[in-house]
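agent: user wants the structure for GrpE protein homolog from Myodes glareolus. delegating to structure tool.
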Amino acid sequence: MAARSLWAVQRLQRLLASGLVSESGGWLHPFSTATQRTAGEDCSSEDPPDVLGPSLAEQALRLKAVKLEKEVQDLTLRYQRAVADCENIRRRTQRCVEDAKIFGIQSFCKDLVEVADILEKTAECFSEGTKPEDHKLTLEKVFQGLSLLEAKLKSVFAKHGLEKMTPIGDKYDPHEHELICHMPAGVGVQPGTVALVRQDGYKLHGRTIRLAQVEVAVESQRRL
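agent: tool returned. relaying tokens verbatim.
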């Protein structure tokens, strides 16, 4: 309404300036020269302005912009949540790795404690208060304790995948055997095979963790 009122006032001012309307409020003759001169201009240039607001295209663009802005906000929020989740997973994984390093041998140590108990009980057999006539009984107890200790150790090793290698007669393998020296091949011993084990080797779940110290059989003339 305000726009139309302003348009009406401006049109009235132009009519006064062109002489179509006198200052006293009277209209001039419609066929006068001033009327003919300004009639075309009034029809072509003095139409009321478009006050219907933005076009449909502009409205569609605004709605699309609002929709895209909401999508950007939603994607940003999802990204922030994903980053936070990844950071939490990384921290939990790092904590699990650290715990595994510290407590990875917990079960093995627990089994070794039982071995230590057997050793302690066996050592008690050699107390200072032992009488000479009890030496035989003491030795029997020590033998029983050592036998029990050996059996327990084998059980613990088997439980945790620790295996003692028995390379006698096997072909020499530098990945499993540490060569100490050569010895002449005897009867039934093939050159290049392990003839004697100085120190046992061990594997953990199939992986060699300690090489076996061995002597390898060779022909007599190649003895070192």
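agent: one observation worth passing along. Residues 20-24, 27-32, 34-46, 48-52 have pLDDT under 50 and may be disordered.
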